[in-house]
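Progress against Task 2.4 (sequence-to-structure conversion) is shown through the following example record, which the project officer requested during the mid-term review.
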Amino acid sequence: MSGNYQNEDGTVTIPEALRPYMDDQELIEGHEKVGESALGSGERE
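Structure tokens generated for the chain above:
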């Protein structure tokens, strides 16, 4: 697991301090990892 709580399988472990705000959910099911190409390379305002 890296420092941003994302697991290798794409899931995200919710830190205990945030779980009360997330209906006590422990894990967010992941999608494919988002890369630069998914974010777009156009100019931003």
